Amino acid sequence: MMHHISLLNIFKQLKADLIGKDSYRGVTLTYTWLANQFGHFSLGFIPTLLIPHHNAPWIVAIAWTLFETYNFLGPLLLQKHTESKALYVPSHKKYTFPPTWGNIAFDTFTDLCFFWLGAFAASLLLGHHTLMNISIITIILIYPICYWYPTKMYLQQACLPTQFRLSQWNLSIKEADKEKVYSFLNATVHPDTITGKHLFIFGGKGSGKTALGIGLATESAIKHKACLYTTAMKLYTLFALSDEEILNEEPNGWTWRTTSLLVIDDINPGQPIPKDIVTAQQFEHFMHSEDNRRALKNKNVIWILGDDTTYPEWQQMLHNIGVSTESVSAVYLPQAKM
Predict the structure, then answer these.
(1) Which N-terminal residues, if any, form the signal peptide (predicted)?
(2) pLDDT value at position 132?
(3) What CA–CA distance (Å, rounded) separates 197 from 163?
């Protein structure tokens, strides 16, 4: 059974975020998103108070709209990465995997709404009657907030080691392998979630194999699919635990057995390490039980490994647990120049 985030989960998380986080408890992605939007609100609010003009809220709102429009249209029209994180400065690198522009546009619009809300909220202190504008923006923001907050929860509970979107991945990959990546992604984000798909990502040091796996999981989580990242060493321990024991140790919305997409990292390092640390036969032995084999068989899994010369052995391992050949694909990423 695949798990999803319920309305009760959302209210519990919101309650925790509104109380606040400190350095000892850690900052969650949901708390970060709320803080970020408060920052956008402030960047609309404060400049409006500082500009001695009756049209100050409109001036600030238009200025931020132009800024965000440039940052959105620049990469959309040029189809190139940026050299700067603050302002779009086109680089020579084109996108390997183009961004989902609709999602980026929605994110940009959400940010703009908070800029506008801050600007018109400040105008109330200046004696301007802009309550209608504030009401309209607030109503418009209901849907974006109801989308983005749970989205951050899906990303948060995926336990990804870093925030990384697929469009940020810009290393070398064959066109045929790129098609395999897209095919796997389409299966994982399908509205009905096509299950039982397995993608092997082979590559050595610096090939970007882990980043590619994280990017795929990120795109799936953004579509509100239950995802989970783990290392092979940790998974070996989880094989021996029940779901109840796992959730008692690490409370989460789902476990490796109930997640929709599982990313297994660090199975083998690849070049420059010449030999595999764990063979396919050993991995199959570590599964312990038929229930574990069935759980792996029936979910979407990204396997991050090293040398692709062992691919037949890993393919045979999946065949042994009941995965069909049509459900397995593999990509090999060339090693980066040292």
Answers:
(1) none
(2) 87
(3) 24
